[in-house]
Amino acid sequence: MAERRSGVTRRAVLRGAMGVGAGVAAGALCSPVATANTGPSVAIFGGGVAGLTAAHELAERGFAVTVYERRALGGKARSIPFTGTGTGGRPDLPGEHGFRFFPGFYHHLPDTMRRIPFAGNVNGVWDNLISTPEARFARKDADSTFVPTSYSDIPWSGPGEFQQTLGSMIATSAKMPPADAAYFANRLLVFFTSCDDRRLGQWEKVAWRDFVGANERSEDFRILLSRTLTTMLVAMSDDQASTRTIGTMGEQFLGNPLWQGNDGPMDRVLNGPTNQAWIDPWVDRLRGLGVTFVTAELAGLDIAGSRISGARLTDGTPVTADHYLLAVPAEVARTFWTPEILSLQPELANMSWLNVEWMTGIQFYLNRPANIARGHTAYVDSPWSLTSISQNQFWARTELPAFGDGTVQDCLSVDISNWNLPGVLYGKPARDCNHDEIAREVWEQVKQHLVGDSRLSDADLHSWFLDPGVAWDANRSVNTNADPLLVNTVGTWSARPAAHGAVDNLFLAGDYVQTTIDLATMEGANESARAAVNALLDVTGSSAPRCRMFSLFRSPILEPLRQADIARYAAGQPNQFDTA
Known about the structure:
This protein is α+β, with helices and mostly antiparallel strands. It is built from 15 helices and 23 strands.
């Protein structure tokens, strides 16, 4: 390497800047291919998980599908080449928007993955998912907590045993005062035994911090179970996060101790870079099904009567199809709602209430293998709410020395979930730091949380890569982000539209559409696309089988209590366990 000084090296800075500047051009789409399907035509705008899922389901049913994607297929889920790093015939180092995480309670996305052929895999790209055995909660100036993610023997037979078992598990794994752990277990029991009407009518309108009574508990409780849980899950503060959203996720992670009905282990990752292990084989499969891909960006939709009559691309090219499926993010989709569209679907105007925040990744390429955790790590006291995973330990398909200049031994992929609090080096939030400052800040915050055998030094750093969606405007001294994340704030469920409304041939897919998972995830994007396709099949009167839809887990043991809660909620009474 070049001469090294303390902190992030000049070479690392230059490589990071080069990756950011060139990333937009990475992953360019191939020329369109002729479609063999003769069914009704569908124009899909957006080539992320939602758009690709819709294309997959429609093409399998004989529709003529064209996907228009402005940048690169895969959207936020794609790999992003660190342009210019490959030498000696090796490909560029793989960067990404953020690390991939496939919880065992995902069902829609794994079902799609099984239908994507992959050489040597019986179950397609699904076989490229592997489980992680542990998660680490690293504290600054304190011992870390390691929590197994593969446990499967925590039986319970009723609410009392559930509360006691869960409380003991939290107290032990999180080193939480027993009283706090028992209290948190009770709050989860309240949510898990709440009927649907209460979840939507009461808990959707309550912030998570208020639901768990964080202000009355210990500091560890506030940090771990209120602040950290919400920031790292939905990239937002606990005083804004919807209890319905956080509670639903808790029900999946903690309410199913035997993982009954799960698609697989709780924490799964891919065994190689995302494009290699998933996105590229998916695109190949779609091309084989007759899907056409076009590099283009939507400019607007035209309407005549109750139907979309056509679309316009930013280069002026008109697009005509029988049906139009919008699979772009919420903040983009709502820019297309003209007065004519809103006159037919006035509920779309409520999308202005939806909030987006930043949750973006940076990759640190290391000269040696990291020994941090055999899974994900949460840096509990980091002001930027960092989480990470060391990737090479899971990349059995193509290890990192096969990329770049051949010297990289590991990649510490870090997600930055809070861009609004001051950092430890420059006293500025990430939004106001240039890219070099972001890299230095994240590196320092990670180092402050790691001790002993897992300690990192500046000598371990080879280079870094920041998601190119984050663009530094030197004139305004602030960052912009092309890929923000929908966050589920209190009371916004009603602002999220259904997959189809009064415009006959317009369908919506994306993680902002109402879904059972109720969280901005790849699973939600996939589920929404299936709902959009099913609506399209209904509109066309198609006899093709509908897309399979899955339900989230709910403990059958607690079902009688949820049924009893229906009458209690209707009578204005609290949940029977809500004694706080």
